[in-house]
Amino acid sequence: MHARPPLDSTAFAIDPMTQFAAWFADARAVNQPEPEACALATVAADGSPSLRMVLLRAFDASGFVFYTNYESRKGEELAACPRAAMTFYWRVADRQVRVEGRVQRVSPAESDAYFAARPRDSRISAIASPQSREIEDRAALEARVRETEHAHASGDVPRPAHWGGFRLTPVRVEFWQARPHRLHDRLVYVRASGAWALRRLAP
Known about the structure:
Elements: H1 16-29, E1 37-43, E2 49-55, E3 58-60, E4 63-69, H2 73-80, E5 83-90, E6 95-105, H3 108-117, H4 120-128, H5 138-151, E7 163-177, E8 185-192, E9 195-201
Antiparallel strand pairs: 1-2, 1-5, 3-4, 4-7, 5-6, 6-7, 7-8, 8-9
């Protein structure tokens, strides 16, 4: 555990996205493997939760962006219930960030730009894979990849309509830092009446 001083709320930014940017930079500085990796929670129509790891691909004042197949389980759950939560855990830095909020699709132009920047093989896979659907076996999946490669052998690989980004716009963001004897620090931003309030929680 790092010998960090206690978190000082008076030293925190006035908004959580600015504070997240600072902690994200800190995680990179201490060589945290894949600091952009986070657990994303969604909920099904019957109230059942589901959780998986995704990669944060962008963030700014408006929220956190990740990409997926819109016809996947998480895509369909987000369409039915556009709320989600994500957690970043940076073990090297002894920190985590928890985010809760509403989700909406990013613009087609944003999705197009990100898709075009992906390696060609990743674009082929995104088209070929019927994400979250049952498939016969590995051979069937690889056959779909070959068919997709053949279909796009002579040109670019455009983004399919069923694939794109989501932006999670936060209403609650908690910053957690490990401290000795389990007396961890927890500072949480809560959005109310158009403004952010910063509060301290017991560990």
